[in-house]
Amino acid sequence: MKIIPLSEGAFTIDKTKVFVPFNTATEELNNRPVGSLLVEIQPFAIITEKDVIVIDTGLGYNEANGRPQLHNNLERAGIQPAQVTKVLMSHLHKDHAGGVTIKNELNSEYFISFPYATWYVQKREFDYAMEVGTASYITEDFQLLEEFSKVVWLTEDEGLIDDYIRYQLTGAHSKFHQVFWIEENGETAFFGGDVAPQLQQMKSRFIAKYDYDGKKCMELRQQWWIEGQEKKWTFLFYHDIKSPVLTA
After folding, report:
1. Contact assessment for residue 11 and residue 4, using Cβ atoms and an 8 Å cutoff
2. Helical (H) or strand (E) element with 218
3. DSSP SS3 for 178
């Protein structure tokens, strides 16, 4: 199993829910609005014996060449976007689902960003996101999934994908957030999405006001950290600048 972080850079975010690029080498967090959080935006590619997997799709920004940053990041890692066989979505907040589709700036038409992949999406999260349409959910970024033939809608609280990818509905961060374990040849890669977004949160009793159920997030992090250390999981931290991948 090969794990490749696909960093989109560091950002700050405050109560406005706007992600503002942040240069960690030259800027001071104190100069941003009070309460600003510093986060990395970091999808992952995982190459297994069966698949090329992308986990979450980032903000969906384009680079100067007009192509999606996520596609460019994959190519820099030696992966063509057409080679991606599975996309796993933890939830549909805009910093995780912005890259679900690509927008043609000439005619404003949207296209699925990985049309040859099978997408695994929690159906209750999709339905909820389409219904509430808050600042955290940009529905035009992902509503095309409803018509896409290669979506597998996950409807159970937990289950198994192709006999080696486990998923579990956690809620906690968003109402229908889910997490994944990829298990191959004795290795386990664990992606906790935004319930377990950073290493420092795994090691402290931290309750965030921005979570749907902050207390449950804290309890799950503690549970996973203990279990992961015992079983030598490799943790994937979507929002961690310094430690995106950590083997316990």
Report:
1. no
2. helix 214-231
3. strand
What CATH number does residue 137 fall under? 3.60.15.10
Which residue type does 234 have? T
pLDDT above 70 coverage of the chain, percent: 100
CA 87 to chain centre: 10
Q: Please count the structural domains in the chain.
A: 1
DSSP string, 52-111: EEEE------B-TTSSBHHHHHHHHTT--GGG--EEE-S---HHHHTTSEEE-TTT--EE
CA distances from 178 to 23, 71, 75, 159, 200 (A): 31, 24, 27, 11, 21
* Rounded-to-integer distance, Cα 233 and Cα 26, Å: 34
Q: What pTM did the predictor assign? A: 0.95
Q: At a CB cut-off of 8 Å and minimum separation 6, what does 224 contact?
A: 190, 192, 196, 202, 233
Q: What is the 3-state secondary structure (H, E, C) of 59-75?
A: CCCECCCCCEHHHHHHH
Domain extent for 155: 2-247
Q: Residue 44 carries which side chain, given as an amino acid letter? A: F
Q: What is the DSSP letter of 147?
A: G
Neighbours of 82 (CB within 10 A): 13
State both tokens at 153. Answer: 């809608």
**Which residue ranges in the chain fall short of pLDDT 50?**
none
Within 13 Å of residue 36, how many CA atoms lie on the same side as its CB? 17
